Amino acid sequence: MFEHITPAPADPILGLGEAFKSENRANKINLGIGVYKDAKGTTPIMQAVKEAEKRLFDIETTKNYLAIDGVADFNERTKILLFGEGSDLIKDRRAKTVQSLGGTGALRIAAEFIKRQTKAQNVWISSPTWPNHNAIFNAVGITIREYRYYDAERKVLDWDNLIADLTHASEGDVVLLHGCCHNPTGIDPTPAQWKQLAEMSAKNGWLPLFDFAYQGLGNGLDEDAVGLRTFAANHKELLVASSYSKNFGLYNERVGAFTLVAENEQIAATALTQVKTIVRTLYSNPASHGAATVAVVLADPVLRKQWEDELTEMRNRIKAMRTKFVALLKEFGANQDFGFITQQNGMFSFSGLNASQVDRLKDEFAIYAVRSGRINVAGITEDNIRHLCESIVKVL
Ligand code: LMR
């Protein structure tokens, strides 16, 4: 029966990690997968996380199953991070959260929920986007429509075409938005543009779905939530898929959350029962450790402050690398201005390199990046930046 199976293509992002592992050249650099590296090029466990794990070790008394929706305190604290302390929709109990297996798991729950419980015909996805968005919505059989996002010429948000394309979104269509640190471009709407988009969305009756995987890595926890909160203030209903992989460094613990906002508490509670049915059929109930760790950090003012300080340090290191990267490219004689890279947010940058330049970086210089030209700025360090910039100038 299995002899007819054909091989699946390697994942454009995770596949790179596998190739990188078997790379033997000493000066290899991985700018592929979106994982934070510190100045030494390692991906450490955050101190606040380590401390919370120690505490958990002492206070945990059972490994009994979690509820279908996961760690209750984690879910409550997730809502506060998303919508802010004192948010009306939290007070009105219009938001319901379930713990998920990372941001990807949350997106899959969202896709299943949309397919099974709404009349949405299309999901509108930015072009370009994280490739797994297309794969997830294809997997559940929802039609994908694209809206233009990136002006490759000017290296800015393609605002006019974004608006022009989204005027074709019908009432009830899902519009997928990157809450901050757009993956792969690193370019986000301004607060004024978020407002315009939220008004357009409310007027046209879209169902917004926020993919919010980088909160705190752009400009700050509250600053990065401006788009989501602007939409939340304008909408009766919306969905959020959020992740703690990056801002807590909990990649392999798979910690994320799916949050649903409804018009009132009763509708939200009913919808939650359907979300739980989805979870039950996908993986029954989630794993405890990562979410329990996040809950310990967020509940303790000292640990929370420590976490925020560490997150700030990460954000600042990425920003510093952006500045240095641009300056060194210039110093090494790049034939174009890369100044736009300092305007982008979060881990990623759309470098403007084309697929054949990216291939040359790998083949000739052992530098791995996504073939779209996306580079993970968080993978740049003081130790590798000169080799990186010299190599880029050679392939330009
Ligand atoms: C990325 O885009 O590199 C990350 O979100 C990791 C992933 O799962 O692709």
TrEMBL record:
It holds the Pfam family Aminotran_1_2. Its EC number is 2.6.1.-. Homodimer. Transmembrane segments: none annotated. Residues 304-331 form a coiled coil. Belongs to the class-I pyridoxal-phosphate-dependent aminotransferase family. GO terms for biological process: L-phenylalanine biosynthetic process from chorismate via phenylpyruvate. GO terms for cellular component: cytosol. Its cofactor is pyridoxal 5'-phosphate. InterPro entries: Aminotransferase_I/II_large, Asp_trans, NHTrfase_class1_PyrdxlP-BS, PyrdxlP-dep_Trfase, PyrdxlP-dep_Trfase_major, PyrdxlP-dep_Trfase_small. This is Aminotransferase. GO terms for molecular function: identical protein binding; L-aspartate:2-oxoglutarate aminotransferase activity; L-tyrosine-2-oxoglutarate transaminase activity; pyridoxal phosphate binding. Keywords: Aminotransferase, Coiled coil, Pyridoxal phosphate, Transferase. The keyword Coiled coil applies.
